[in-house]
């Protein structure tokens, strides 16, 4: 008979002392899987819930992912076949702008997490760093940090070191905390 049991990182049904049936498993990173298990492995339908609010809904067989889709915290579904959001075409509109159209220039979004009236970002990005979507990326150290609490504590705990490919993507596509002058510059040539 399957009954719910609570183990160190698991709550759900067990069979012969192993995760089997429906349950929830928490990873040390805070990510959690809610779904079906078989003989201690993900098996059947389940959802991985990430700390950034995104989730991956998929189907597994004996611990191997068969298919699924990633859904961002704002509801945007990743589609590898038809992905135009922040693509190589440099379409920098955010998901709400794709859905609702562009707002007048005085009410634009600086990020998908901006105050809708002022356009001021809800997250502070330190100079020279990038908002990578799941944390703040510091390219000088090549480290991704959790989001900090405020401007005085802009960086949270260490998340991970990034790969060369991830570094290139972040600096090419993500919003940067400005450390350089932009705008009108008087010409030095006369």
Tell me about this structure.
- Strand 10 (143-147) and strand 11 (155-161) form a beta hairpin.
- The chain has 190 residues and is mainly β.
- The longest helix is centred in the last third of the chain and has 10 residues, at 164-173.
- It has helices at 95-100, 164-173; strands at residues 4-7, 10-15, 18-26, 32-38, 41-49, 55-61, 64-71, 130-131, 136-138, 143-147, 155-161, 175-176.
- The chain is globular.
- 8% of the residues lie in helices and 36% in strands.
- It contains two helices and twelve strands.
- Among the domains are: 4-71, no CATH class; 123-178, no CATH class.
- Strands 1-2-3-4-5-6-7 form a seven-stranded antiparallel beta sheet, with no helix packed on it. The chain has a five-stranded antiparallel beta sheet with strand order 11-10-9-8-12, covered by helices on one side.
